[in-house]
Amino acid sequence: MKLSINRAAFIKALNTVSRAISSKTTIPILTGLKLSADVTGLVLTGSNADISIETTVQIEDPDNQLVISEAGNIVLPARFFTEIVKKLPMETLTLEVSDNFQTKITSGQSSFEINGLDAGNYPHLPEIDTNDSITLSADIFKEVVSQTVMAVSNQESRPILTGVHFTIDDNSLMAVATDSHRLSQRKVVLDQPVNGHYDFVIPGHSLTELTKMIADDQTNVTLLVTENQVLFMLGDTMFYSRLLEGNYPDTTRLIPTEFDTRIQFDAHELLASVERASLLSHESRNNVVKLTIDPDQQIVTIYGNSPDVGNVEEAMEPRSVEGNQLEISFNPDYMKDALRSFGQTNVNIDFTSPLRPFTLMPSEDGESFIQLITPIRTF
């Protein structure tokens, strides 16, 4: 294999596939990066068995300055190779692979030789045996993931909860995540109806890496789903992820349908108050913030306390208060994550009792986005 390429274009492709490469893999060859060159372009592949990323540097794009003198493929040590390419002095570089997998990288007066591996031993990418594709708006997909992925569990004792549960039917998409202490549910109406019914769970860490790869100018994301794999297509890049096996629990019954007390706040203002209260609660072992609601006085008060440091109390001004008096305690970190996901909008917070989960919903179109938090017993 022999080729020359624009270094900036190559680095961009290397950074993309490097997201899937881990030094901790149990399969040694997966610490490497696979390069395959043919008449159409240069294909880079990275994988950690859970996710695989393949991106193509097109030969027809003049910005890539890609010239392939000799087709072939090789697996190179990802970390060393990427660092070498980033440090090379000139705008272009040349890559030449000999018969014994020795790889020579030259740029200007600089020349490196590193040992490669036979690409024939690199695991094959998952086969996606379906023609049914789903096209989603890239912006909406990123928003749905960011609003739900923070609620996935990081406990491997219940693997199914480490992912986001997607159900897609006709013209609606619903995404749900829960770690059994909190829950996030987002519903979206799709522009283009889909054929069939889809029900799958994608690992949270796969979605986090995927959304980092979606460029601001990307308009759509296309996905293909099989029994145990999902493929996302983003222009010249393909992102594969395994799906989590098992049945996701029925979360709809966890969401209260009525309330005894409701307060409405500007999400950003309430977030600032909770952040102030958590400055002291974080110094306490149990990390709890308390909220008291007095509908008669139209007053909501927040308390944070650390026996070693001191306490904080702040009277807040809600947009509205209705229902019964209430005192409730919760984890401020869960509340901060929930409030950040709403951005600049008003939220309704609905309570049923001091020990029952409470919900946060936008005051407009509330059913489209629900955050649920389980309170903490303090007595």
TrEMBL record:
Segments forming domain DNA polymerase III beta sliding clamp central: 136-250
GO MF term list: 3'-5' exonuclease activity; DNA binding; DNA-directed DNA polymerase activity
All residue ranges annotated as the DNA polymerase III beta sliding clamp C-terminal domain in the record: 253-376
GO terms (BP aspect): DNA strand elongation involved in DNA replication
InterPro entries per record: DNA_clamp_sf (IPR046938), DNA_polIII_beta (IPR001001), DNA_polIII_beta_C (IPR022635), DNA_polIII_beta_cen (IPR022637), DNA_polIII_beta_N (IPR022634)
Domain DNA polymerase III beta sliding clamp N-terminal, residue spans: 1-126
Cellular compartments annotated: Cytoplasm
A Pfam family reported for this protein in Swiss-Prot or TrEMBL: DNA_pol3_beta_2
Keyword Ribonucleoprotein: no
Keywords (A to Z) from UniProt: Cytoplasm, DNA replication, DNA-binding, DNA-directed DNA polymerase, Nucleotidyltransferase, Transferase
Keyword DNA-binding: yes
Recorded GO CC terms: cytoplasm; DNA polymerase III complex
Family according to the record: Belongs to the beta sliding clamp family.
Function: Confers DNA tethering and processivity to DNA polymerases and other proteins. Acts as a clamp, forming a ring around DNA (a reaction catalyzed by the clamp-loading complex) which diffuses in an ATP-independent manner freely and bidirectionally along dsDNA. Initially characterized for its ability to contact the catalytic subunit of DNA polymerase III (Pol III), a complex, multichain enzyme responsible for most of the replicative synthesis in bacteria; Pol III exhibits 3'-5' exonuclease proofreading activity.
Subunit and interaction comment: Forms a ring-shaped head-to-tail homodimer around DNA.
UniProt cross-references to PANTHER family, sorted A to Z: BETA SLIDING CLAMP (PTHR30478:SF0), DNA POLYMERASE III SUBUNIT BETA (PTHR30478)
Protein name: Beta sliding clamp
Lineage, opening ranks: Bacteria, Bacillati, Bacillota, Bacilli, Lactobacillales
